[in-house]
Design goal:
homodimer, about 375 residues, alpha/beta, Isopropylmalate Dehydrogenase, 2 domains, 11-stranded mixed β-sheet, 14 helices, about 45% helix, about 15% strand
């Protein structure tokens, strides 16, 4: 398909088809599906030649057949990041990232080992200047739309400065993906009486308010605010973020199971379910986790999109669409610019602590 | 009703009927409902005499009318704990707790200000020896049953020792409530590759394994394991726990909203919903947050049950049933005994760190 809803983009994406739980077949079915909904980037497939050829045939991709960049080695899910860096430079993952480094591709998409993908990306592409450590942002369904939550697992311990950096990266990501000019940003906190969270959250909030007045920072939000859609971007450390994300997934799965039980509880219920078939299809679509697949490694100086290891074709298609949306947007430059601006303001002493403390020091 | 499924318990419970968002009416409707499902404790009602008399009449409680302990002052939701301690000693909350202190009641139940309830309870009843700070445990629905998650908000920053204490308190609570001899206990952690959580979680796991081999400690669990029912007790710090709890509530509400939309999407769907009425009633019951209402202030040397400020009559009834279950069980003594045992073993040096570090020091 050469004509999607968008005009052909001339954007090139490197697709690592190995490494996910399901393998090249699912990756290429995902590509086929993405094309059917307007994905118009050029793609190069990285992986074992024979596997790719078989998968292309299985997915029945005969039009605009992507180029194959053969790589015999594969990063496994068991590889430790440090080992992958040492021993997997002949892998499809390494070579796909190299395409971005060399300017041949604008983005890389992989369903492989997250730790290895992060380590290889940071080594080859480096971090954005002013970013201490990259973060992983998750797309989160809300009652009305979607939001971004970060970090969801890359950084279990963070400084106030890192929370500020997460806010800046999440804002740029949300702007690229949702098309809002000024996405709202909230800091995740607890809401019980007399508890106002860690000191570092207070410091991060202060810096965001004072040093980045251009950001639509709405202050603290609570766990139940995420799915309410109170903020376009919810910022937290990787420990709480990972727990929140997995807890939400578990809860949705449990409630989904209860709904299924309800629909099949007895003959009358089954008849009722048959009557509401159309509406149930919408519900199933809303609850499909594939919709939210595709998380950029934020803070890496290049576009690297992590697709879930167990993603299905729908999920891979969503990750490819995210890669394309980000590739069309100057979001890396925005992060660079905003981080530099905020750091300048904090270091110049323009941001004073309420108690006169050195905020630049407290934030480290 | 003097005959429930249990024999009359001769247990006395002090019920603070003021302070919740809904007031004495809901508290007494809750009492009425609890009695209908076997709640056989004696109850004294603490609060404004006129309000209580009106609420007794509204709830139509004419049999076994509880005694009234008049208290004209009320702790408000806005009171800071420190202010409440200073200025609210004439309040229903303070006086209800005093009943436990003086041995006139076995437990107190209140829907009032959590911070004030905690502060007043610690001041009057003291903490259990060996417990650094009390915690709040939440009942959490799982696919097959329920589990306890703690802490969910009292302690945003914790030591490894405190996580160990939470585990011990949660285990005793689950034993009293679920009737398992050896409830399984898990430590909440992140599951991404190469991330094994904070050092203090590692230390806590080590202590639990080595110093409390009697506990059915199953190691680390992830956010999605909570609703799967992987552990009877899930231990975490109050920051992550509060976020997990509220995120789960938000997710359940969002999915519930989607289900409602599905059932009313169009005429066919509405007809279908009418057919499955019975099954939907079960679903509604499963999703009713009132089922999980009633959280003991764990670590306080006396039974104090916090009911949600916005609890309905169902919720108040659940909190009263929890109070009665705990009052019938030697769970305070169990916590005392286990904490003393574990502390003894850690301090004797019987628990060695893998690297030979002083675990007793690392845990503080």
């Amino acid at each position: 398909m050469s004509s999607g809803p968008n005009s052909p983009s001339n954007i090139h994406i490197a697709l690592d088809v190995m490494g996910g739980d399901a393998g090249p077949d699912v990756m290429l079915q995902g590509l086929r599906q993405a094309r059917e909904t307007g994905f118009d980037a050029e793609v190069t497939l990285h992986g074992r030649q024979a596997d790719i050829e078989a998968a292309l045939e299985a997915a029945n991709i005969t039009d605009r057949v992507p180029a194959i960049a053969p790589a015999e080695d594969v990063v496994t899910m068991e590889d430790k990041p440090t080992d992958a860096l040492r021993r997997r430079r002949g892998s499809s993952m390494w070579q796909a990232i190299a395409q971005v480094k060399e300017g041949n591709a604008k983005a890389v998409v992989s369903s492989g080992n997250t730790g290895a993908l992060m380590a290889m990306s940071v080594l080859q592409l480096r971090k954005i200047e002013g970013i201490d450590r990259p973060a992983i942002g998750a797309l989160w369904p809300t009652v009305s739309s979607r939001c971004v939550v970060l970090d969801v697992g890359a950084n279990v311990e963070v400084s106030a400065n890192q929370l500020v950096q997460f806010a800046i990266m999440g804002e740029a990501y949300a702007r690229a993906l949702f098309g809002h000019d000024r996405p709202s940003v909230g800091l995740l906190n607890v809401g019980a009486e007399e508890l106002k969270g860690h000191g570092l959250i207070q410091t991060a909030a202060k810096i965001l308010r004072e040093a980045d007045p251009e950001m639509a920072f709405i202050g603290f939000v609570e766990g139940n605010d995420i799915s309410k859609g109170v903020a376009d971007v919810v910022v937290t450390d990787g420990f709480s973020g990972n727990i929140a994300l997995k807890t939400a997934e578990g809860t949705a799965r449990m409630v989904g199971g209860w709904v299924k039980d309800t629909l099949t509880a007895n003959l009358r219920a089954k008849m009722g379910a048959a009557l509401m078939m159309g509406a149930l299809k919408d519900l199933k679509q809303k609850m499909n986790p594939s919709r939210a697949n595709g998380a950029p490694l934020l803070g890496v100086n290049g576009l690297v999109i992590k697709s879930h290891g167990g993603a299905d074709a729908d999920g891979v298609a969503a990750a490819l669409m995210t890669a394309l949306a980000l590739a069309k947007h100057p979001y890396l430059e925005e992060i660079q610019r905003t981080v530099a601006k905020v750091n300048r303001r904090v270091e110049s002493g323009a941001v004073a602590d309420l108690d006169g403390h050195d905020l630049a020091k407290a934030a480290q």
